[in-house]
Model the fold of this input.
Amino acid sequence: MNKSAIQKFAMWARTTLMEQVRQRAFQYGITKDGYGEENAVTVNGMALSPQEQSQRRELVREIQTKGYDQVVEEVAYTWFNRFIALRYMEVNNYLPSHIRVFSNAQGAFDPEILKEALHIDLPGLDQSKVAEYIERTDNEALYRYLLLTQCNALNEGLPKMFEHMGGYTELLFPNNILRPDSVLGRMVADIPEEDWTDQVQIIGWLYQYYNTELKAETFDLLKKNVKVTKERIPSATQLFTPDWIVRYMVENSLGRIFIDKQKNEGVFADGRGLDEMTWDEIETKRISNEAFIAEQMGWKYYLPEAKQEPEVQVQLEQTQEEYRTCKPEDITLIDPCMGSGHILVYAFDVLMQIYESEGWSQRDAAASIVQKNLYGLDIDRRAAQLAYFAVMMKARQYDRRFLTRGIQPNLYHPGNYAEGQEFGSLLIVDQLEPKPEQPDEITLFDGDYTDKLNTWNFRSLLARQYDVVVTNPPYMGSSNMNDKLSKFVKDNHPDAKGDLFSCFIERGNRMANQDGYNCMVTMQSWMFLSSFEKLRQKLLHSKTIMNLMHMENMVMGIAFGTAVTVFRNCHIDGFKGTYNQIKLKDIDNSAPKKFPVPENRFAWVNASNFSKIPGSPIVYWVSEKVFLSFSNTKLSEYASPRIGLITGDTDRFLRLWFEVSLKNIYWECPSNDAAKSSDFKWFPYQKGGEFRRWFGNNEFLLNWKNDGWECKNDNFSGSRVKSHNYNGEYAFRAAITWTKISSGTFACRFVPVGFMFDDAGPICTVSEGKIFFILGLLNSKVGAFYLSMVSPTINYLPGHINSIPIQFGTKESQAACTLAVEKLVQLSKQDWDSHETSWDFKRHPLV
Done:
């Protein structure tokens, strides 16, 4: 697939279509500045037909409600959606007429429908109009009429993609569409025809790339501290999910239900009874059969369960009991953030395999899947429209007459429902109002009932529970949320409020049936950051991680790490989940070269082990011995790490040591009391700095005269004092310091008596006689290894230092380590003092 061509076209098409929509509106006297007479019958001397008058009035009402820019945006993407839908259908020969609307049989932009205009059997086509256009040799008008008629004819089978023509969107249909450089001409010429045969890929990528500029605008606004409005939530959060990740998600959630049902059948075909086999033999055969079934189904991303202990297997089988007798039509799956429908379409394929294994025909299975198995929601109307189209095309693939059967999928957006537009599928629906009654007659322009029904359906899906919840939810940090959304997540997701994706993890668990599955691809931050600690602990104690795929930066094409997690909506004590990691180097042509990746990036882990580590990080890569080591004595028994002072005004209160008179500096101040009683103004100050071990980065001084009176009392931002976090009782002691934020390896240094310390350069005071031993531990590979677990980010906080386990060993080994570290500190000090930037510089070592 030529993604570069797709991206270039989609971005260009959005700009072009919006400009053409504005031009059409201008022709009818409507601009961003106004629309003149609302009920105009003439515009600029041009008499309007009754239909045009009605369409113009409808357009004016939309602008009054939504604003000019929003209406232009909506009309442009409506036509874009319709054009790409028609293109997909013509390439795959799904149009009922089997006549191409944009190209000829050779694939060139030469609409076959123009040549066949007098012979085409198209519902609603007025042949007298066709003849009139031909007689006038007005190909542009004829083509416009044929396209609009074709769209209208598709309304019966695809009503949510091709709404009834006649409204204001028809009025704003682009001009000059037969030109080779038109949107239609470029669509045919720029994107290879074979790309249109891979349904979800082409639709999903076109949708994402179409929104590129809008997304950039949204993030530019965020840089100016403009919060994301409800209209911009889709553009700020939507991300197309690569095909192989979709397959992993669906195979390990929906696919697992099928395999749980099948895997025990015939496992012991060698004739031996359970009482004749060891537990290991039973588990080995069970897992082997599980892998065999997945291979037969062609599920290359399915991961069999690990061998479980007997008591765990009993719990597991109890949770699988209800699925042993379930029928294919009983399994329900929802994607609550469905985007363009990629997940739903692959779920359709998997469900079709399940139905066929039970003897169903493809035609009957397609109808049942659409009606009974698949459900979807999205906050964005245009995304819901494309997801709807994708699912309908998938059904058409299995049943060539599907579009004539009057079957519609259970896929909805919130419509004009304000709370739904703001909160999407996070919305909690405890009670569902009665279904709106259909009026005796629905007029062409009366969408009130349709919108009410759509909203009711949207809410009804949120009021249900499902066997499988699977999605790529939106990612948006709390700092970017508008006030209304921020309050909602704080009230309803207090443990997950840091990001929308974490809120959706909780929402997915609520939507899943007991013992059902919740599978989401999210940012990796929930696995490690302290802000998600409560969420982690809640998940580990109430749910079961069946498997987790941890992905390095850029594996999904985005500049941060992500993770696909399959949760079982119950807690199976002692269950060993399957964990694997994918790095960027493992990816070739947008998919892993080998799956799962071998080496040390695949593990079976009992999730209860994570709770043994402070903060409960999901550190699946460590051994059982490492987990057990956290039961040893912690460094907090002997050390007191502290974040230091925030002055609030570094330019005023800090200086480099050579910028002030040496006689005003209190070197080697022994205590806080000594500093208070002195007349000195400047004191040595630790402020982090570049990577350096053992000793150094001693460069700054702090104005701390009279116990920091100026910093504490004459340092305002409005009515608030800017400085805080003095931690004075820990100042001036011999200590260990480090740079709090470091993109490289963690490194710490010895600090002699006499220093105050900064937020960026915290200190750690240590029990007498142990400072060099602990300094050695922190600077060792062992220390770095433990820190990588408790702080997998670049931010090293006192709590991380406190949680490291420590063993001093024998007196002899402790003494030897202490002596070695003292020597390293001495050598590092000599190196630091050999440069003129040191206040203890005497002469250059080469002199």
